[in-house]
Amino acid sequence: MSAVEETDVLIVGGGPAGALLGFLLARRGIGVIVVEKQTSLERDFRGETVAAPSVVTLRRLGFGPALDAHGFLRTEGVTMRMEGRRVMHVDYRRFALGEVPVDIPQPALIAMFSDAAAEFPTFEYRFGTSFTGLLRDGDAVTGARLRRRDGSTSEVRARLVVGADGRFSKVRHAAGITADVQHMARDFLSFKLPRPADWGLQAELVVDRDRHLVVLPTFPDFLRVGHNLPKRGLGALRAAGFEPFKAGIMALDPRLAPVVAEHLNSWDDTSFLEIFTAEVPEWTRDGLVLIGDASHTCTPILGQGVNLAIQDAVVIAPVIADALSTAGPVPAAAFTGFVTERRRHKAHVTSFQRLQEKALATGSTPGVLLRRARYRLLDALPLKYRIFGGVLNAPHGIDPADLAVAAGGSRPGLGV
Which residues form the FAD-binding domain (predicted)? Predict the structure, then answer.
């Protein structure tokens, strides 16, 4: 027979959104259990860039000492090169936030959140625990069924279940919410390389007609390289052979040729990512809410996933706390404002990503010439900082009051 437990909030998914939300709720004295199907955090994450506004938010939440103690890599700007010519450069240090994007391993970031939360008696983070189904009372969600790696099962009854389990969310599926998946024309293959000593701290977008590389400095001393390929084109790429693939990378950016030749040895060194966005028509049920990629999947362009997740957690924490002041499952209506606000911000990000993807997918000679001319013109105008700042540094809708430590819940290093 399954064990039965009770808590205020059950969060399914222990990534950045789930772990940070768990901390924010536990700090308010709310009972919260975070469950994560993986047995540890020691796995590879593709997106590890924390945008400048998110760095500001984390420091105001009190995580500055932990960030500094672990270490991170500052990303000082981005350079775009098209058909062998530099066409644009954005210097992140020119923005007025006082921070630049940083690269830090997501396992370290998640550990910072969960370690801070573990100091509160109402918090628990469980590795190796999978979600298997929702508990219901009529139409209201009242908890979830869980299974550990050893096969044991349990039921956790909660006034709110939070689905923070990513782009293929099982919680979303169990709730009967169908995502409208919109595929991009291309997918991505990524890999890591040692960072050459003279590379600097700039991200690079290297484009040749409809082929491109995204090259990101990665903590502590790597480059993360993303290479586009046609949708459903992985099979053909592999059939053509690994050496032609390597040759294509080196031709796109000859600066990478020495490290590619030495360190990129087989398909096992690469990681495939299917590129799509997902529009989710409903984010809530009575007793349930979706956050992060479970509710608004974005593409990897500009690395917005982890940042949207952090924003979601900070914005929704006070909403949940207020909603728990009344008895019973948290009603879906409690999240109307949250959903409206976050959907608007996500749509802004996605529209910019689609414009970027459309420009990068251009392969015809007239299109390539026009694209290059547009970027060079934009580079010459101060307007580029307003355009990029509108996405990279867009307001999060975070009330400064939401960043204050709950009364009686402060501890050294986590005050504001």
Answer: 6-185, 273-329
